[in-house]
Amino acid sequence: MHARASGMRAAIRNNEDAISMLRTAEAALQTVTNILQRMRDLAVQSANGTNSNANRHSLNKEFQSLTEQIGYIGETTEFNDLSVFDGQNRPITLDDIGHTVNMTKHIPPSPTQHDIKISTEQEARAAILKIEEALQSVSFHRADLGAMINRLQFNIENLNNQSMALTDAASLIEDADMAQEMSDFLKFKLLTEVA
């Protein structure tokens, strides 16, 4: 029983590590969301017909810098020296005492995959649509991460409950055995003293 409870504690640690990795990914996607919202603001501003070419050039310069930042986040976000958004859809398997949880690391499609600019009014209007798609995709993936985190938290709660129940049961069995041993010892002692 103690070995099984120990295995459950190890499974809990594995689940906690998975939650940490998912939270790392979620934090990166929150930053990407903030960047996309700023990019959308810049595109809307650039789509305004009252801007000069010089204004649009300045707006596009910031826009391109933000595009590069999204790429940088995708390339450098790591957990335990593993790239979180490496483009590989590798399952993460956690052995939780009898069953396996498969999760897939995936970066959502980025607007940076397309060469988008906001140098002209037309480019800015097209960029707004691409950014809206990217925001939807990121929101979907963040919701998916949240669902996985919740699932793992419920799994941890279940494993904690099972581990406590096993520990309590083992303790009762050991206490019962100790009482029996004490009784046998006293009985044997009495018999030896009488003899």
UniProtKB/TrEMBL annotation:
Q: Which SUPFAM superfamilies match?
A: Phase 1 flagellin
Q: Give all residue intervals belonging to the Flagellin N-terminal domain.
A: 1-89
Q: Where is the Flagellin C-terminal domain?
A: 130-194
Coiled coil regions, renumbered to chain: 142-169
Q: List the subcellular locations.
A: Secreted; Bacterial flagellum
Output the Gene3D superfamilies linked to this UniProt entry.
f41 fragment of flagellin, N-terminal domain
Query: Can you say what this protein is called?
Result: Flagellin
What keywords tag this UniProt record? Bacterial flagellum, Cell projection, Cilium, Coiled coil, Flagellum, Secreted
Q: What does this protein do?
A: Flagellin is the subunit protein which polymerizes to form the filaments of bacterial flagella.
The text of the family note is: Belongs to the bacterial flagellin family.
**Cellular component terms per the entry's GO annotation:** bacterial-type flagellum; extracellular region
UniProt organism field: Bacillus thuringiensis serovar huazhongensis
Q: What is the lineage of its organism?
A: Bacteria, Bacillati, Bacillota, Bacilli, Bacillales
Q: Which GO terms describe its molecular function?
A: structural molecule activity
